[in-house]
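Protein modeling request. Please complete all fields; requests missing the sequence field cannot be processed.
Requester role: graduate student
Desired output: 3D structure, token encoding
Chains: 1
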Amino acid sequence: MEKSIKKYFPVFLLPALVAFVLVFLIPFLLGIYLSFTEFSTVDNAVWVGIKNYITAFTRDKNFLNALWFTVKFTLVSVITINVISFSLALLLTKGIKGTKIFRTVFFMPNLIGGIVLGYIWNLLINAILGAFGLDITYDAKYGFWGLVFLMNWQLIGYMMVIYIAGIQNVPSELTEAAQIDGASKSSILRNVIIPMVMPSITICLFLTITNSFKLFDQNLALTGGAPAKQTAMLALDIYNTFYGRIGYQGVGQAKAVVFFIIVAVIAFIQLKITGQKEEEA
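Delivered output (281 residues):
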């Protein structure tokens, strides 16, 4: 049986490998090359070295503003989403009535598309601010917290389901033994439950960090970067640069490469740290 698997393994691997090379690897490498060129189409690319990267960091204030705005948004969103979803998961694993209904209701926002969510929350927030003669584009802080609320509403239910799965896999013998030894609820949570659900924490942190950094649809629909591009996140700024400024396609591509490196490095560091915590647990 094992010999048959080894014999036909390349046959089954080949379609996936071809698709990976054609759909991801070649466009990815071409994108890196284009970030060092000036171009309007792939055929007329002219090599300019690191000029596009210099322009992105020194002559384009919108890029640095978008980077800082994205970092702040990611920090707040990751903390709030994971704390609230973990708290809900703890609550919904206590055997209270209607648990399945609550899980379904909390998960449903994740099924709604980003553009639709953005427009829905735009209407809701503007309805509230309108009572004071304001709207979400009046000040950047309104857009910031609007995006945070939107992101929380969309992802809390999804992360909650992952945390519930992790909590339910904690052996009841461990918590019962801790209770017999006189451990308090907070001590059990800190020393038993959290270490045992580290795999779920790793997954949730990875998903919330990457989704927060890559947020685009919701940003476009909710604020569009207004006022004066102060609420534009990295993905939206790259889009505006590439498609909204003539002759800046190379700069937009350079921003995209920097964007990829930032997300990859942060995700790698997070996975490394939480992976060590899993091993310790």
